[in-house]
Amino acid sequence: MSAAAPEPQTNQGKPVPRVDARLKVTGAARYAADEPVNNLAYGLLVTSDIARGEVNTVDLEQARGVPGVIGILSYGDVAEIAPPEFGNASYTSLGPLHEKKIWHDGQIMALVVANTLEAAQEAAFKVTAEYDVQTPTASLDSDGAEVIEAKGNTERIKEYPAVGDFAAAFAAAPVTFEAEFRTPTQHHNPIELFSTTAVWSGEELTIYEPSQNVYGFRSAVAKQLKMDASKVRVLSHYVGGGFGSKGPMTPRTAIVALAARKFGRPIRCVVTRQQGFTTASYRAATRQQVKMGANRDGKITAFSHEGWELCSRVDNYVVGGIETTTKMYGYGAVASKVSIVKLDRQTPGYMRSPPELPYVFALETAMDEMAEKLGMDPVEFRRVNDTMKEPIKGKPFSSRAVMPCYDAAAKAFGWSSRNPAPKSMRDGDWLIGMGCATAIYPTNVAASTARVTLHADGRVRVQTATHEIGTGVRTVASQMAAEELGTEVEKVEIEVGDTMLPPAPVSGGSNSTASVCSTVLMACNQIKAKLFEAVVKAEGNPLQGKDPDELTLENGVVLAGDGASLPLGDAFAAAGKASIEEYAEFTPNAVPKDAVKKLYDGKTSMAEEDKREKAMFAFGAEFVEVRINARTHEIRVPRIVGAFAAGRIMNTRTAHSQLMGGLIWGISSALHEETEVDERNARYVNRDLAEYLMPVNADIKSVEVIMLPEVDTDVNPAGVKGLGELGNVGTNAAIANAVYHATGIRVRELPIRLEKLLAMS
Amino acid sequence: MHPFAYQRASSEQAAVEAGNPGPGVRRPPTEAAAQFVAGGTNMSDYMRLNVTRPDVLIDINELSPSAYGHIEADSAGLRIGALVRMAEAEDHPVIRSDYPVIHDTLKLAATRQIRNMASLGGNVLQRTRCEYFREASFPCNKRQPGSGCSALDGFNRRHAVLGVSDACIATYPGDFAQALIALDARVEIMGPQRRRTIAFSELHRQPGGTPNVETGLAPGELITGYVVPAGPHTRRSRYVKTRDRESYQFALASAAIALDLDGATVKDVRIALGGVATVPWRAHEAEQLLVGQPLDETLARRAADAAFAQARTREHNGYKVPIGKETLVRALLETQAMDV
Predict the structure, then answer these.
(1) Which residues of A are known to be catalytic?
(2) A32-134+190-276: CATH, from 3.60.130.10, 1.10.357.10, 3.30.70.60, 3.30.365.10
(3) Nearest by Cα to A187 from A642, A612, A684
(4) Cis ω on the peptide bond leading into residue A588 (within 30° of 0)?
(5) Which stretch of DSSP H or E encloses residue B81?
(6) The pTM is what?
(7) Is B135 in contact with A699 (Cβ distance < 8 A)?
(8) B interface toward A at CB cutoff 8 Å?
(9) What average pLDDT does chain A have?
(10) How many CA atoms lie within 13 A of A325 on its CB side?
């Protein structure tokens, strides 16, 4: 055991090393664009230089003249395919080659295909366009923005969570707080670039593409290509990070597939880092208004949270973090609202903890500010407002360990050594600040399917079209199968990321471990039931006549309650089988009855909150120390501690890694990341990894993750809450609160950069 | 990618001959059809971004290692060959002990992986990171003379406040050059016609009305090495680099200091500023204020005010004046406190 592989506590699984660790560190695990394909041609996108206007002409002549060019798809060449449909499987409804109108910077205008990548690059450079340029609207405060309410205009927001009379409660509150918060545009920037490789074999299409949603991609691309989804296979064996950007498909995929058919060649199109900023989704910038009222004893009596989210002209995308923030504490009266602000930008989308990261920043900074107004310790302020029932509908939490997380993290951090006065702690030229915040993430689970095969020699095969996006799902699903079938993880072979396998939900919303492990558990139980049934009926073995319900399978031996036993191989022999294969369909509570059918059609059905009897969330508490140079104002984070309770932990190693990565991501969202936009032309400026900042190794010092034992049997059969998106929630607020403690300056707009602290000197 | 021929130069003469655009060509060397390449860490970027589209790449890595690949150190100073890699100079024991400001500027630049590749000849010629320069679809006077400057009224958080013009505010991005200009280094240059040596401070050109002309090099001229004179100030020398993250970022503001003290009194001081100017920037006004005076925070602050007296800011880079000054104050005081 080590820091990276913590000793499992109650309800926590062994820190089994990742089953694909060796493949990954040796480079043997292939990205989609590394899959060997014969007779490959190379495609490259050509994108617009303007954000709004009309393309008059695209001149392809020079490009066609570049030696090695096979062909170019542009306007007028895509009549055979339909534009995408906005939804979970396609991030936008914009068919960029279907119309000459430009809706955002870097919109696809052509796909150049050539025998070599270099020829495609040169030809793409030689494509020129003439536009009727119109002045675009770039950001939330720009002229020309269209503001519409999320309710009534989006699928996601059906009502604004509210309870009681907020206005009256706020007016009557003896202590009130009110402020505006802002979070920036951010891009996922997974290390693996976006890519599509399309290979036709007669009428059948194979697509290699990094995806968090292979069945969704399959159905979306088939619809666009007007073909039967059963003729399409999508493969995504290993994904080099997605963070939501590879959840929905982008318009590129169908265009590449069409080009491959037209030009009669397999085509691989890798999107450049720069183009990745404009041809896929991103995290929308937000503006938020928080109002809070409290009694002098610290009890919150009124809370209001209103958000405005940046969006495109063409789609109505919203994240709406009010669904979460309004349930965080026992507030009293609550009001909330979300609007979307339509601009000349591409459609935003999911990015790790889509609603929670921006909205909890506002809430948890506000909590710190209110605690200060009340003269309370910020931890105690949260304790006073802790609740075991969510305040909107009064549903009990299935489990909630906010304060145990605070207590564990505060102790590990040494919170008691903090002098609460701002600007009171210093080490030489470095001001020291300490802050904390709550982490929260909804517990999602979705309908899923899997096939599991147990062989007489103890080998197991697990097949499910989930996605290895770095989370370790291959490992935890293998562990579940090994545990349930009484064998070793090394004997489990797992296949994922392929639409030839039984479907699994989109790998988003931190549902995969819960959904996939619950399904594997179900399939394993079916296998055992079949085996036990056969063994007790078979003549001449020690288990003959036993009650099959009392048999168990452990360490390669079938055991009866009375001590009778039979090695697995003999049990299979007695049953007259060499192997047992079982297919399981897992339909959790609170999903539609036809959820599995929808899953085959590429649509994930998550359990619906309204239909659940309890409120289900994972929680955590995070403590941060910042150091800020008194002269030059650089902000550094020497240490961060997070304590989390997320139900059953399948594997303490992979869970620790995810939570640690989340904390680092949180530091990034607080201090580093921002996609910078040129206000005049609505174009992104910092489109590379040198200028789009995120922490480097030198920025990350001590990161401590504590996983509290928690048992929650309500959430799903596996008892897993999901924690991939928990660790990075609240971190930005903890840092902002620490920055305030160090400097006395409240920064309510992320990222916190040194120029925002000029007032300190 | 623009098709190009690749050739290896076996000698200096062959290199400069291959780089010679011929008589009558007046374009600056950055626009020449033939480009030298050593580490390739920048050239490959420019080519992929279509910022530079050379027809010929002349690989100079095989030039005489004795002349190009070595660091010579004696009582007169240093001679650093142009093909010495950043990491080699960073690790050199004499540079570490006697010229710490050079060590600092290298150690705090880029990443170790890049420093293992990048040559010091190419290093000082690294072109600006101005986002509008690097994206070929934006107007840029440096890339396309006369097309206009997108940065003046664009997003200019990382842009320069010193040495700017109405045609260009692009920041000179490097660190090593600040050490060279502070230490009064000289640059050895080999050209098609002749060899020459110039002061490092003469190498770069402020943008003025011709931001496409970045240096005083003629087409085909090759930097062969640097000479850094020894002096009582080199051991007490230091580089402070202010940035948003701890590593792998160009300076928002930086200061290279070399200081000769008599007790608290400044006998001699050299100050260069990075991240805030269009070229490697020597702050002579600040130096003059310090010489002969006892160095303390008040004096350091006056020097910093003098260094930025001519600063011209735009919408997003106003902070570079106060942060640049604080960086200089910090660097001066930390250099004073060095144990040498």
Answers:
(1) 725
(2) 3.30.365.10
(3) A684
(4) no
(5) strand B77-81
(6) 0.97
(7) no
(8) 1-3, 48, 50, 129, 131-132, 135-138, 150, 153-155, 157-158, 240, 242-250, 252-253, 318-319, 322-323, 326-327, 329-330
(9) 97
(10) 38
Q: The tokens 């060509």 sit on which residue?
A: B25
Residue bearing tokens 């989340």: A662
- How far apart CA A666 and CA A652 sit, in angstroms, is 21
| Partners of A342 in the β-ladder | A146, A311
Overall fold of domain A355-444+611-760: Aldehyde Oxidoreductase; domain 4 (3.30.365)
The burial of B84, by beta-carbon neighbours within 10 Å (0-12 exposed, 13-18 middle, 19 or more buried), is given as buried
**Other CB atoms closer than 10 Å to residue A578's CB: what's the count?**
10
Model confidence over A729-747: pLDDT tens digits?
A: 999 999 999 999 999 999 9
Q: Hunting for tokens 């984070």 — which residue is that?
A: A637
pLDDT band at A54 (very low <50, low <70, confident <90, very high): very high
pLDDT of residue A149: 98
Residue spans per domain, chain A = 32-134+190-276, 355-444+611-760, 448-606
Q: Locate tokens 């304060």: which residue?
A: A403
Residues in chain A with CB shorter than 8 Å from the CB of B242 are: 632-634, 754
Closest by Cβ to A753, choosing from B48, B154, B244:
B244
Question: What per-residue confidence (pLDDT) applies to B23?
Answer: 82
Mean pLDDT for all residues in chain B: 96
* The 3-state secondary structure of A107-172, one letter per residue: CEEEEEEECCHHHHHHHHHHCEEEEEECCCCCCCCCCCCEEEECCCCCCCCCCCCCECCHHHHHHH
A345-385 pLDDT tens trace = 999 999 999 999 999 999 999 999 999 999 999 999 999 99
Task: Inform me whether the pLDDT recorded for B138 exceeds 80.
Answer: yes
> What's the DSSP call for residue B144?
S
The full DSSP string for A514-550 is HHHHHHHHHHHHHHHHHHHHHHHHSSSSTTTT--GGG
Q: Tokens at residue A751, please?
A: 């990222």
Confidence class for position B27, pLDDT limits 50, 70, 90: confident
| Beta pairing class for A333-342 and A146-149 | antiparallel
pLDDT, tens digit (0-9, with 9 covering 90-100), for A463-475 = 999 999 999 999 9
pLDDT per residue over A531-560, tens digit each? 999 999 999 999 999 999 999 999 999 999
How close B287 gets to chain A, by Cα (Å)? 20
B249 vs A274: CB contact, 8 Å cut-off? no
Confidence band, pLDDT 50/70/90 cuts, at residue A695: very high
Nearest to A285 by CA among A626, A682, A659: A682
State both tokens at A759: 């007032």
User: What are the structure tokens assigned to B119, written together?
Assistant: 């040559």
With a cut of 80, say whether residue A761 has pLDDT above it.
no
Q: Copy the structure tokens of residue B202.
A: 């003469």
B326, A125: Cβ pair inside 8 Å? Answer: no
* C-alpha–C-alpha distance, residues A566 and A557, integer Å: 6
Q: Quote ipTM for the complex.
A: 0.96
For domain A448-606, the CATH class is: alpha beta
Helical axes A214-225 vs A252-263, angle rounded to 10°: 60
The domains located in chain B, with CATH, are 5-62 (3.30.43), 237-336 (3.30.390.50)
